[in-house]
């Protein structure tokens, strides 16, 4: 599948507020100029598979912060975000070798596939019995992109997110899910069936798209072991209590409203700062404290040397009495809100130049 044309300022990947079929399994629309919604459509169960991952990767690689500041990842299938990864593809993977092999051998095969993909052979590999190797690598490449691109990523969970669906959501910066916070909801079978979890162990498997690693970092080893070893599925209410979700909403209408407003606000942020924060947390947080601190220092320097950050700091200093003062000039209630919601100054790429130009005219 050929790469998509890279975005440019004024030439976004998808335009218009109506859904556009971008590829066989993806639809896109723009509820706001700098917000891109991506809906996965693979009915009836909305299974994640190699084709969906390949199409997602093409879209994520084409994004540029000049055109897109936030991405909402959702589903086009009612009441289902992603049921799980395609079990048929996993079975095909297990059929590659007719006898047990060690994890080290599998890692070697995956490294070989990555090397061949680097030289342009993945398309050929995907047409052979070795396709499952390409798909497993694709999965990690997509989740890495979600964790590292300079756009905010929001998983808009309209229904169940089991196995691979949970892992794809975990790779996003924010997760909002439809559910109920009513008393006893965490034990309600209907609510659990629309919930989230990593049930792979029920089929003798383990999470393969980053679930063990992301759950450990997000919830800690004890909760990660609980969810992965028991394979239990949890309701949106319990997921919120654990810290797996950022917010629970009551229905599809509220889900759209909340995620779009969140995306519009976050899309105003400085993309360099977004990328530096994500790198400091996801990469630096996995290093020793000393190495993580050095990584944060480097990222801090990169962010503060950008023109938009410089312009924002200068503007803030000119108005510091209105933020921090106690006299007649102090207007914290008037100035804090724009600072928090991103309207204080234009932090999008080229914002400093545009504001300086307006000052001169």
From TrEMBL:
GO biological process: fatty acid beta-oxidation
CDD domains the record matches: crotonase-like (cd06558)
UniProt-listed Pfam families: ECH_1 (PF00378)
Signal sequence annotation: none
SUPFAM superfamilies named in the record: ClpP/crotonase
Lineage top rank: taxon: Eukaryota
GO MF annotations, alphabetized: catalytic activity
Classification via Gene3D superfamilies: 2-enoyl-CoA Hydratase, Chain A, domain 1
GO cellular component assignments: mitochondrion
InterPro entries in UniProt: ClpP/crotonase-like_dom_sf, Enoyl-CoA_hyd/isom_CS, Enoyl-CoA_hydra/iso
Similarity section: Belongs to the enoyl-CoA hydratase/isomerase family.
Protein's name in the database: ClpP/crotonase
């Amino acid at each position: 599948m050929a790469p998509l044309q890279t975005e440019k300022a004024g030439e976004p990947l998808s335009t218009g507020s109506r859904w556009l079929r971008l590829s066989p399994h993806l639809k896109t629309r723009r509820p706001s100029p700098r917000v891109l919604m991506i809906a996965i459509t693979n009915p009836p169960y909305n299974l994640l598979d190699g084709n969906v991952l390949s199409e997602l990767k093409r879209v994520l690689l084409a994004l540029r912060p000049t055109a897109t500041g936030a991405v909402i990842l959702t589903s086009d299938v009612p009441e289902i975000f992603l049921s799980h990864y395609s079990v048929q593809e996993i079975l095909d993977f297990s059929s590659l070798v007719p006898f047990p092999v060690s994890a080290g051998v599998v890692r070697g095969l995956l490294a070989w596939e990555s090397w061949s993909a680097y030289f342009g052979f993945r398309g050929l590999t995907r047409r052979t019995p070795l396709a499952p190797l390409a798909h497993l690598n694709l999965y990690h490449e997509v989740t890495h992109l979600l964790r590292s691109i300079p756009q905010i990523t929001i998983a808009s969970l309209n229904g169940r997110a089991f196995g691979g669906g949970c892992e794809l959501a975990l790779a996003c910066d924010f997760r909002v899910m439809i559910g109920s916070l009513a008393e006893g909801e965490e034990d309600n079978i209907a609510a659990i069936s629309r919930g989230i979890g990593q049930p792979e162990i029920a089929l003798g498997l383990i999470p393969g798209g980053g679930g063990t690693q992301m759950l450990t970092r997000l919830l800690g080893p004890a909760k990660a072991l609980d969810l992965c070893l028991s394979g239990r599925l949890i309701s949106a209410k319990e997921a919120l209590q654990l810290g797996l979700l950022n917010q629970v909403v009551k229905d599809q209408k509220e889900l759209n409203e909340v995620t779009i407003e969140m995306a519009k606000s976050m899309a105003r942020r400085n993309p360099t700062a977004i990328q530096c924060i994500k790198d400091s947390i996801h990469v630096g947080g996995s290093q020793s404290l000393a190495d993580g601190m050095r990584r944060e220092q480097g990222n801090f320097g990169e962010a503060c040397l950008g023109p938009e950050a410089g312009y924002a700091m200068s503007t803030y200093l000119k108005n510091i009495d209105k933020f921090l003062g106690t006299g007649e000039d102090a207007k914290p209630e008037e100035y804090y809100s724009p600072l928090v919601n991103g309207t204080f100054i234009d932090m999008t790429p080229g914002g400093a130049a545009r504001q300086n130009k307006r000052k001169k005219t």
